[in-house]
Amino acid sequence: MTVYETDVPGVGRKFEVDVGDGARIVVVIHHSGRRELFFRPKEGADSERVATLTGEEARQVGAVLEGAYFQPLELDSQAVPLGDAIIEWVEVDADSPLAGQTLGEAEVRRRCGVSILAIQRGEDTIENPTSDAEIRADDVLVALGTRQEQQAFRELHAGTDPSDG
Amino acid sequence: MADPLLLQAAIVVAALAVAGTLAERFGQSVIPAYILVGLVVGPNAPRLRGLSLALVEGGEFIDLLAELGIVLLLFFLGLEFRIDQLVAARDRVAAAGAVDAVVNLGVGVVLGLAFGFTPLETAFLAGIVYISSSAVITKSLIDLGWIADPESEAILGVLVFEDLLIAVYLALLAAVALGGGGIQGAALDIAWAVGFLGALFLIARYGGRAVERFFETGSDELFLLRVLGATTLVASAALVSGVSEAVAAFFVGTALGGTSHLDRVERVLVPARDLFAAVFFFAIGLETDLAAIGSVAGMLPVAVVVTTASKFASGYAGGRVYGLSSRRSARVGAGLVPRGEFSLVLAALAASVGTGALATVIPAFAVGYVLVMSVLGTILMRQGEWLWNLGGIFRRRRTTSGVDRTD
Prior knowledge:
Chain A has four helices and ten strands. Chain A has a five-stranded antiparallel β-sheet. Chain A has a five-stranded antiparallel β-sheet with strand order 6-7-10-8-9, with helices on one face. In chain A, a hairpin with a 5-residue loop joins strand 2 and strand 3. Chain A is an alpha+beta fold. Chain A is 20% helix and 36% strand. Chain B is mostly helical. Chain B contains 18 helices and no strands. Chain B has helices at 5-25, 30-41, 60-79, 83-88, 90-114, 119-130, 134-144, 150-179, 182-206, 208-214, 220-240, 245-257, 262-287, 290-295, 299-321, 326-335, 341-353, 357-398. In chain B, helix 7 (134-144) runs parallel beside helix 18 (357-398) and helix 9 (182-206) runs parallel beside helix 12 (245-257). Chain B is globular and about 65 Å long. The A-B interface holds A 6-11, 14, 26, 28, 31-33, 36, 38, 40, 44-49 and B 76, 80-82, 85, 134, 138, 141-142, 145, 147-149, 152-153, 156, 159-160, 263, 266-267, 270, 325, 407.
């Protein structure tokens, strides 16, 4: 994928991103911080202005597009179908037994079968965390597994896991 | 008028605010609105049944702010001018820019001679009709969304070329006009100007690190003061030694444009530039006598028609150089038609140093010309599309294939 960057004198910078079939997304970043988003459906066509964003709005939208940003509070109801498996987001409570353990110590996969795809910590995302990644309170764990495995994981998180003895 | 200065300043700024709002409402550039409001409330205001709005007398404080406006306009021109950008696209920029310069300066010279001007007056006239308005054009590019399309690269490329040429042109004209003493005197003045500006250019080109360090500060306030202080100091030093202060400011801008301070300058100094530039346009209106514009009423229509056509044609050719389709090339042509602030900077120079027709006829012509061209150019950019489609009907009739490849 190619990103074209041009200086626009007196305005700022322009970025063009190829998005297939000759279509392009054009972003103009003004010196003032304002971002203008354009879409050009095919080569030679006129660009259509899609949105004008402030710097703050642009960062929000960018994070959403990146897949990094979401509202954890609303996530209880969110699930993404993936064959039998679904992805769920679980926010780690301070009193959860998981808080303070590494993924390896918590033995998440062995005990309930889900894989942790990522750990969200504030603005940061730890992708494909290794077994020595630490789980902290207020982290959001992105877990992949079947409904039953997700159920088991929620119990493990809440400290009501029967296999815990 | 015994009004306190504060009241005068209040009237100026309030009048500008009203004019700017109206211009915005009608989708027009603010520049002609600022000039017109200056005309209306100035000492030369037209009287309607004995009633006059002449509220502002002019005077030193307006002259000072207007002068700062010129300095900052040229400072920003330099700031946004990047030599490496010119070098990176030199083939296309040079070709499109050269066509633009040869055609439009050439047309200006022919017009000047046809109007019976002296060589110096003709040189000023040629510059005035040659230089397009970055302010008006950039605003329209953003408003219309052309900024995202390839024609904006061609338009801005030609503007970059014009910026460099006008800086040199202004320096030469100022040296000749300020000196004004025979060929030998003029040569000396030009040599001195070249030396002074050459030194500034060398600092801009090779003193990047020192400049970078000099303006390094955590506080926006100190940054603003340092940049304004350095710019006005260099500009005034230039003026005192008989070199164009505007061109000196251009090179200060270039020096800063090459550093990492660029974005910060844009953020912190744009408000200052906008305020002072608005007063500059206002002052232009203030100093203009409607009767003087009346005296050039015969020249204006000729110049408007001829230079609109020449700018459109050279812009169209420039678009072709950039490999654009005929429809987009036509946009480049229309996009370069607006004239504005730099024509007025030339006019202000003519008014301040010239005598005779140079001090009266040329500025009056420039004001009338810019009033028409800034509005006409904006309209052409906005409404050009249906004109182009109308033209397309005729083009189709002439082509046997019946296929109109406009894109």
